[in-house]
């Protein structure tokens, strides 16, 4: 019956609760990480920093979780008493919005809600049709499950004459980070439908890839809201029980040396070899093909309000550390200038130092290691004590897109000076 069908969704979250936790000393941070391993906690925002984190706790572990926090003197607050019903409610809101936007016949990409893959691809196709002189839609490959992985190339001259620096931005490698893809489609909009910075359009060629991991992305809508990895099952024996590889541990840089797992069931499973995933191969091939002129590469994630740069596997600085930091701070200032009072200010720094954990095989490290001078991970805004939703409330999508674009603008302009 209908009721059973409706309830079948999100059933893996029956009885789960979510909590805000705020570790304030280094020791508390460490204890929280250990507790995370012991109780199999699912952190939806960086657990390892001194900012508050949001964490999902399964029913069996809630009592011990709360007890442990109290004995460690770590402050916490219940965020959602019933994760499943919060997700169900969110679905209803999404469905209503989808219905009403269908009614009003949206042609352009709506930013009042998160969009399914078909809407994003329809938008990219529409832009390619409307701007045939500057835009080309490319299908780079098919995902593990056979969905196209698509990006737009934007150039006011001829992309093929290789005359300008390239800016490459990707999103959606971690599928549950829903705020990432819209910031990339917003960049498409700002370079086609609504150009307010003509220098950016004229002085660079652009590659914009909103959804690196379409299988995971769709799976977060149809099945498991907090799915992070790809959905591949071919690379490992236990993969039919635990599909998927963490795309951001699968790049060939210090691969699987730190901050990764060999267990296919882990959310940070590195895969059985570097670039085992077609999704990361696509990003690799774009980077390699245009390496000589990629001035700036940004991979967009959430949450944390952070701009991160190499090296994330060991916390050391690259030969271009000063340039990375200077441009990072300039981008963060531009974003903060447009931010809302209830959003945290951006933090800029080396990935491993800011996150307080090391992780090898990530995209920005790989890009920098092969020679991209400016390579960053953006962690978009997501949370702050009590005043935002279970994930970033859809009412903030447009705000985040606008402010993030300001960061891209400054990064692009500064990249030209250094290039
Ligand atoms: N949240 C991202 C992740 O854990 C951050 C990656 C930062 N980059 C790095 N090289 N560790 O995948
Ligand atoms: Zn991520």
UniProtKB/TrEMBL annotation:
GO cellular component: extracellular space
Pfam families xref list: Peptidase_M14, Propep_M14
Keywords: Carboxypeptidase, Disulfide bond, Hydrolase, Metal-binding, Metalloprotease, Protease, Signal, Zinc
Any one Gene Ontology molecular-function term assigned to this protein's record: zinc ion binding
Residue span(s) of domain Peptidase M14: 113-415
Annotated active site: 379 (proton donor/acceptor)
Cofactor or coenzyme needed: Zn(2+)
Residue stretches in coiled coil: none
GO terms, biological process: proteolysis
Family from the record: Belongs to the peptidase M14 family.
Protein name: Carboxypeptidase
Origin species: Helicoverpa armigera (Cotton bollworm)
């Amino acid at each position: 019956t209908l009721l059973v069908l409706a309830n079948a969704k999100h059933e893996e979250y029956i009885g789960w609760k979510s909590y805000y936790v705020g570790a304030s000393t280094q020791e508390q941070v460490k204890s929280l990480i250990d507790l995370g391993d012991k109780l199999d906690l699912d952190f939806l925002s960086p657990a390892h920093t001194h900012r508050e984190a949001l964490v999902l706790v399964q029913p069996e572990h809630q009592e011990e979780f709360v007890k442990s926090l109290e004995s460690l003197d770590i402050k916490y607050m219940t965020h959602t008493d019933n994760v499943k019903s919060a997700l169900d409610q969110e679905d209803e809101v999404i469905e209503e919005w989808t219905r009403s936007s269908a009614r009003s016949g949206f042609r352009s990409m709506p930013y009042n809600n998160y969009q399914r893959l078909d809407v994003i691809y329809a938008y990219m196709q529409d832009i390619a049709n409307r701007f045939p002189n500057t835009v080309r839609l490319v299908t780079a490959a098919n995902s593990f499950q056979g969905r196209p992985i698509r990006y737009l190339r934007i150039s006011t001259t001829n992309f093929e004459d290789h005359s300008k620096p390239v800016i490459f931005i990707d999103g959606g490698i971690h599928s549950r980070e829903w705020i990432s893809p819209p910031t990339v489609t917003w960049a498409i909009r700002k370079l086609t439908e609504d150009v307010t910075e003509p220098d950016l359009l004229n002085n660079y060629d652009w590659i914009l890839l909103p959804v690196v991991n379409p299988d995971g992305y769709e799976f977060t809508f149809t099945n498991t809201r907090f799915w992070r990895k790809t959905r591949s099952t071919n690379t490992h024996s236990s993969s039919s029980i635990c599909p998927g590889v963490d795309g951001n541990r699968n790049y060939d840089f210090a691969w699987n040396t730190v901050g990764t797992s060999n267990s296919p069931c882990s959310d940070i499973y590195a895969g059985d070899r570097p670039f085992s995933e077609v999704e990361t191969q696509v990003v690799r091939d774009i980077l390699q093909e245009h390496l000589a002129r990629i001035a700036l590469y940004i991979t967009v994630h959430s949450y944390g309000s952070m701009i991160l740069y190499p090296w994330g596997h060991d916390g050391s600085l690259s030969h271009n550390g000063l340039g990375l930091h200077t441009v990072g701070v300039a981008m963060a200032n531009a974003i903060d200038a447009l931010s809302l009072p209830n959003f945290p200010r951006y933090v800029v720094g080396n990935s491993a130092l800011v996150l307080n954990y090391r992780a090898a095989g990530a995209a920005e490290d790989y890009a920098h290691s092969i020679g991209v001078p400016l390579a960053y991970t953006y962690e978009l805004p997501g949370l702050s004590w009590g005043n935002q939703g279970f994930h970033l409330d859809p009412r903030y999508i447009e705000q985040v897109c606008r402010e993030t674009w300001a960061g891209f603008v400054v990064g692009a302009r500064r990249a030209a000076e250094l290039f």
